[in-house]
Design goal:
Blueprint lengths: L15 H10 L7 H8 L1 E2 L8 E2 L9 H5 L8 E6 L5 H15 L4 E5 L2 H18 L1 H4 L2 E2 L7 E4 L2 E7 L3 H4 L6 E5 L14 H7 L8 E6 L7 H8 L2 E8 L6 E2 L6 E2 L8 H11 L1 E3 L6 E2 L1 H9 L2 E4 L5 H7 L8 E6 L9 H11 L3 H10 L8 H12 L1 E5 L9 E8 L4 E8 L5 E9 L2 H9 L2 E3 L2 E4 L3 E5 L4 H9 L5 E6 L9 E5 L9 E5 L1 H11 L10 E5 L4 H11 L2 E7 L5 E7 L7 H15 L11
Parallel strand pairs: 3-9, 3-16, 4-7, 4-8, 8-9, 10-16, 17-27, 18-23, 20-27, 23-24, 24-26
Antiparallel strand pairs: 1-2, 5-6, 6-7, 10-11, 10-15, 12-13, 13-14, 18-19, 19-20, 21-22, 25-26, 28-29
Helix pairs in contact: 2-4, 10-13, 13-14, 15-19, 18-20
Amino acid sequence: MSSKSLPDTAEMEYAPWLMEIITLLKPPRSITVSQWADENRILNTKASPLPGPWRTSRTPYLREPMDMFKAPHVDKIVMCCGTQLGKSESVYNMIGYAIDQDPGTMLLVLPSDELARSISKNRLQPMFQSTDTLLGKWDRTHGETLELQFLGMYVALVGANSPSKLASRPVRYVFYDETDKFPMFSGKEAKPTELASERTKNFFNRKEVHVSSPTLSTGHIWSEFLNAEVRKRYFVPCPNCGHYQTFKLAQIKWPEELNEHKSERLPRVLAESWYECGHCRGKIHDMDKFKMLAGGEWRPVEQDSEKRWHESRSISYHPRSVAYNISSVYSPWVTFGQVAQKFLMSKDDPAKFMNFVNGWLGEPWENEALRLRSDMVLERQSTHARGVVPQKARLLTCGIDVQLDCYWWVVRAWGPKLTSWLVDFGRCETEGELDELLDKEWPQMGREPLQISLAFMDSGDQTDEVYEYCSTHTGLVYPCKGSSSRMARAPITESKVEHDDFGGMRLFILDTYYYKNFIAGRLKRATDSPGSFNVYNSEDEAAWLHAYAEQLCAEQLVTEIDGMGRQTQVWRPITRHAWNHLLDAECYAIAAAERANVRYLQEEDQ
């Protein structure tokens, strides 16, 4: 056959399946995530105050965290950041890079399913449509919002409140966005991050990326930051002396006379603040920030001197996890005056100041009252194991807090003089699981097993469903509801359900202020002493009991003043995202004990 009869390879058509295999086997380009973003990303008005082509040079502190995604030895990246820094956009850059250059099944975990749908519609899909290299690989015929199909892979978006979705598929990449807003548990006993992480263990080249502003020092993102093999902060050079340093709130200054004239302070602080170099004391203005950011570099926080840092760069070390911490002071869109003004506006209000510390400084909130009270709960560990009833107990009650997708519950044992012990706690996903809990026999030390005598179930939410459930468990489970105001006569009153289908059913109204005070007061009594409020021994399950302690201490007693100047003490969540479901469940269990006449229990010899 002559050469003229051979087909031109440029004109040959290959089967689609063959082209897909060739594409999948094609090795990734020698290009970093930041370079890929500079070449391909187009920002729209929803994503950026500066729409148009992505430029990493505008936020140079994002370059290394993004490029670390390609490092073969790193399987976990942690970004603990303030707001307005572009951290979510950096995650989207990593997602786009992986789809285009190194495909693999992918999971993006967000605090809720609703947010996952919103991010898919308003952030990810517009990014795919505006990026030519991604649009050509995106199969839009499926029309799915929470599972986007691409050539050789898919991107699944799930809420951290959906345990079945988190644990349903093997994935190579997992991205967690705003992890400190995740529910504490997803399912019965596993954290959402643990469920998702389990899905990656079969991949030798897996990657996990954790991104969030911090909340408490015990929160997920700060714990991940502290546990990383290498922890880094962004050092920038002073434009006056060249000394490298991190931006600190204490170095933001304003004229001293503004401290005495509060009425004039805020507008002038916004306009007249500057940053003072921690080395030469020279003034640094907002116009200097961009140059400082461009010359900045990430350094391990353990490296205290510039000399040791430069020496360490010659050492070959390949960590598996790298964490980054940065504040909003670094944001190109935030001035020193805005930070100073926000600080002055929030410093006298604990709730506002916590938001400033978390969202602006990118640091965890250290609440001494919460930490001490949590420690106090852990100090009340008795000798009985989880799921076992102490020998002195005579009665079991259960409190059930109803949420949209689950039931939080506690089982508490009671003895004479209102002494009580936590037997177990957890979360049920279905009514069937709740039935098993209420029917269970709990082993008792030196005695016959006990069953739950009475349970109170919160009917403030999912009211009809709760009434229906209680109607099928008459005599064992009763609906209850917290009072909208303090109750003067008694902390619990009996009423009737006003409902066409459940009329006549007993409904108990509770003074939750009283029961939360009851818990706070009883925790002050010594472990196993008369009237004490005890928990089980957690030698093998310390983390699980610590999670219980955090929820039990999720509220604080504050004084509020109404429009007429009257002061009232109320229990309020310590943080906006604090979970208090187990605290509410304990209140219901205590109220159930009171209804079961636990006050009249006597010692055996009496």
